[in-house]
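Retro notes, item 3 of 5
We never archived the inputs for the protoporphyrin IX containing FE complex last cycle. Fixing that now. Sequence and ligand:
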Amino acid sequence: MTLRSALTLLLTLWLAVAGPPAVLAQDGPAPAGAPPAAGAPPAQDERMARTGGAQTLEDILARQRGEKVDLSFRRQALGSPEAAAPINAPLGTLGGASDAELWRAYRYGLADLTTQVQVPAATTVIQDGGMSWLELRNGPLRSYGGYLLLGVIALLALFYLVRGRIRLESPPTGRKIIRFRLIERFAHWLMAGSFILLGLTGLVTLYGRVALIPLIGKEAFAFIATTSKLIHNWIAWGFMAGVLMAFLLWVGKNLPRKYDFVWLMKGGGMFAKGVHAPAGKFNAGEKIVFWAVVLFGAAISFSGLALLFPYKIEAFAATFRVLNDLGLPQMIGLEALPTALSPQEEMQLAHLLHLAVAFVFMALILAHIYLGSIGMEGALEAMTRGTVDVQWAKEHHDIWYQEIEARGEPEAEATPAE
Ligand code: HEM
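Structure as it came back at the time:
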């Protein structure tokens, strides 16, 4: 083969694979029927007349730019029995609607459909909203959720660098008092342990494809993702039981008291040494965490159960109806919320709620974990051994200490090492 014929072959192959370069298509003569280069674009009817009633390139490009395009002509193009060719004419048995028109009617929920399938979602064949749900999950929720968690970790690290560990101001006495009974510690660790597992496995589900597949490959990720999903679905029951137990055990001690406002005004004494803030068994900060855990725990359990049992738990349409009747969306300048939701939309909303609450919940619990461990001397012991030093109780929970002293509650035995 000569050099010339080899080059010709290569060029032919390249053109066959890559096609003509895009720039050729742009610079070449305008395609037949293209709008004039200057002046206003022709009206949509006129444009569509050129495409035989289909969407035009301008419409498609406008839609890709995120602009609103009037597509009502498509919605209405559903064919008609009158348009059917007579039975004795060519194609006469095909009816008055083409396949495209039938699918379009499916898509816009306008087809007169019946099905013998009895599962709830079977009546929705195509659901456009699935795309915006996916974009929200893979876009803003995933990225801003990640920034939130990293931001909280950075803030806690900064707080540690500036304030350091919050230590006791006077040395421990060695006298111990009981702070949490075994059942309270059990409820706490059931809730905490399952929360950490749920958070980690949930994050694997959400970020695995983008963060783990490039690192460990698809096969290893497939195993991790399947295991994560199993753990998430089963550990959820432990979490719900833990939250319920903690609620029943501690609700009485978490009701707001006057001195809680003083605690809040003083920032809990956490931002400067020597500042004392009054607190009962739980301080105002802990009470806020308690009520947030109850509220977020209920929301995340509800939405999680809706995901766990698809199409069985649907509450959004009913809730939106109540909110509309109360006029709440209108009060903040929103339109009335949709009250006719497909089963898929109910699931998508449950998922978005689950994810949004999960991020706020994790951010809050990161701060709680910090304060309960490295952030404050003596705090972890209260939840591991169930006891605290008298000096710790006096400095951090003075009102509680006075109460148990007044009641004459027995002291715990000091361990020999202390
Ligand atoms: C309380 C009971 C809970 C139940 C019943 C539950 C259930 C579920 C279910 C069924 C899924 C979908 C998993 C899949 O892809 O198949 C899910 C996803 C997820 N859950 Fe939970 N969950 C619960 C609690 C939590 C908690 C406490 C957290 C956070 C600490 C959490 C964070 C997540 C996250 C981040 C996802 C991933 C969502 C996504 O990939 O888009 N969940 N959960």
